[in-house]
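Quick start: read one record
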Amino acid sequence: MADRPAKPDRDALLAELSALSATATSADGAVSLSVNTDGVLTRLRLTDAVSEMSPSEIADTVLRTYIEAQRESAKRTGQLLAPLGSGGYLMDRLRWRVQYEPAPDDPPAVPAAPRAEQDGKVLKDRSSDAPAAAPPSGPPGDDDWYDKGMRFQPAW
């Protein structure tokens, strides 16, 4: 009879998984972060180097460093779980995390400056403008209800 490989000790495996932490640092050293075995962010550190970066550069650096840490976490979690087999949903998710690549960001849209009114003022006092129409009183009729399509009320 062939000997089966010994199953790993469940408690020891759970302890190793709960203690697992993967840390990654961006190439420029501006961002350092850690994730746990599930890939959840557990620590984020930004250096003074981020003060030289735009908000979109900071966001991109954090995201890319986060993905690097998640990949490392997924690899190490997979190595710990390998004795249990390489099939199943959990291992599929770990393989997906290792291969995940974020979609490239479009350049951030620069918000347009507010247009100046005819008189040169950006903000205009509209308190003397006509008041807004009052909402209809009472519940909406059936025609109104069905014409607007299905709606969801959180209280349901």
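The beta strands are 21-25, 31-36, 41-46.
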